[in-house]
Amino acid sequence: MTEIVRKLRGYEKHGDSLMMEITLSAIELYQLQKQFGLVESDPMYDAYEVTKDQRNFLQRYLKETIKWEKYDWFIE
């Protein structure tokens, strides 16, 4: 069975370049589904833009302090 690795990725605001990437190993799928308003059967294979409402939740699981306003953030 293949392991699915979800990442928090920050892209430059005026372009498409990836600027920062953090592996989300400490967050369970069901927790992400709840935060993003998804049904339990959604495997979250797409990219999901991180809104201001989700930032505090995600920051609790990250060792790094994220400058949320610096980049556009997505869970991928």
Q: What would you say about this model in short?
A:
By secondary structure, this protein is an alpha+beta fold.
Q: Could you describe the 3D structure shown?
A:
The protein has a four-stranded antiparallel beta sheet with strand order 2-1-4-3, with no helix packed on it. It has a single domain, classed as Cloacin immunity protein (Chitinase A, domain 3, Roll), CATH 3.10.50.20. The protein is of the alpha+beta class. The protein is globular, with a radius of gyration of 12 Å. It has helices spanning 29-35, 52-59, and strands at residues 7-11, 18-23, 48-49, 72-75. The protein contains two helices and four strands, in the order ββαβαβ.
Shape: globular
Structural class computed from helices and strand pairing: alpha+beta
Low-confidence runs of at least 5 consecutive residues:
none
Distance, first to last CA? 19 Å
Please state roughly what percent of the residues sit in beta strands, choosing from under 5%, 5-15%, 15-25%, 25-35%, 35-45% or over 45%: 15-25%
Total of DSSP H or I helical runs spanning 4+ residues? 2
* Secondary-structure element pattern, one letter each: EEHEHE
Named CATH topology: Chitinase A, domain 3
The total strand number stands at 4
Strand arrangement within the widest β-sheet reads: 2-1-4-3
Second CATH tier, the architecture: Roll
Largest beta-sheet details: 4 strands, antiparallel
Question: Can you tell me the CATH superfamily?
Answer: Cloacin immunity protein
Q: Residue share in helices?
A: 10-25%
Assign the CATH class.
Answer: Alpha Beta
The domain tally reads 1
Radius of gyration: 12 Å
Mean pLDDT: 92
